[in-house]
Input
Amino acid sequence: MPRVLLIEDDPSIREGVGLGLRRRGHDVSAAETGEAGLDLMASFHPELVLLDLMLPGINGVQVCRRIRETSQVPIIMLTARGDDFDIVVGLEAGADDYIVKPARTEVIEARIKAVLRRLSEPAGGRPDVEFHGELAVDRAGLTVARNGERLPLAPSEIKLLLHLSASPEQVFSRQQLLEYVWEHSYHADARLVDACVRRLRHKIEDPDGAPRYIQTVRGFGYRFGPL
Output
C-alpha cells in the first residue's frame, strides 16, 4: 500500500484518519504543521500527500506550492465546508483533488486509489509516443515533453492531457472529464477541471499567445487541438 503523508493540525482528525489508513495497510506519517510536513517530505518519501488547507504558520496552499517546486507527488487537500476561495487557490497551486471534512476513511481511501490509478493505467493499445505539434506524449511512460524538454506534470494534469489528446477535436464536457479523470460519478465541482486546465495550459502553451492545444468550447467544456 502507498506511503501517505498526512499534514493536519486537528489532533482528532489527524489521529482518526491516520489510524483508519493504517488499518487498511498504509504506512502513514503525520505532521501537525506545514513546516513539519515539509521536513517529512524529505525523509519519509511519501507516495501521496493528504494536506489540510488551514494550517498554522505555513498554510496548506503555501505547503502545496513548496512541494510542487521539487515533486509531482499526488496531493489531496482536506478542506472545511465553505472554503470555496481556498479550494480554488489550492487547486491552482497544484493539488490533484480535494475532500471536504469530515470524511469517512473509506471515502479517503477511494480518492487515494483513484488518484494513484492515474499514474498506473496502460496506454490502451495506442502508440507509445504521439506527437502533437511541439508536444511528445508518451502514453506508456506517462510523460510529456515540449521541444524535447520533459514537463513537470502532476497526475491529474497527465491524465487530463492523455484523455483529451486521445480524441483530437472531440469536445468533452466538464462532467465527462470529472468522471474520467477524477472518477467523480456524481455532479461534482467543475472547478477541479477548470483549475487543472489552467495549470496545464501554463505548462504546455506559449505564455504570450492564445491557447493552441486545449481549446475552450464556451458553455460546454474543452477539446484538444492543436491549431
